[in-house]
Amino acid sequence: xxxxxxxxxxxxxxxxxxxxxxxxxxxxxxxxxxxxxxxxxxxxxxxxxxxxxxxxxxxxxxxxxxxxxxxxxxxxxxxxxxxxxxxxxxxxxxxxxxxxxxxxxxxxxxxxxxxxxxxxxxxx
Length: 124
What we know:
The chain is mainly alpha-helical.
């Protein structure tokens, strides 16, 4: 076996192994927190009954994207994927964070042309 075949996939045993684990842990924590916050916001902060379906569709789509990313990370950690997929995993994590930010802005910012959002709820 040559030197390249003996090189560990994720840097285990190398001096950078611990720093890679810390970076991966921080990345997972940020992405998981953003996805969890966005998924909860999609169901909790529904101001109109008409948008509940689109909010739940957005949350389900986001969760499916994250599930695909989790599978990629598992395959990468097991060594089934090449090292060049690390950049792809980072890119999809960054894209997911941007998608979560866009979703949270949509859920939490008031819409100016929305009649339902600007009128107070009727007293019962």
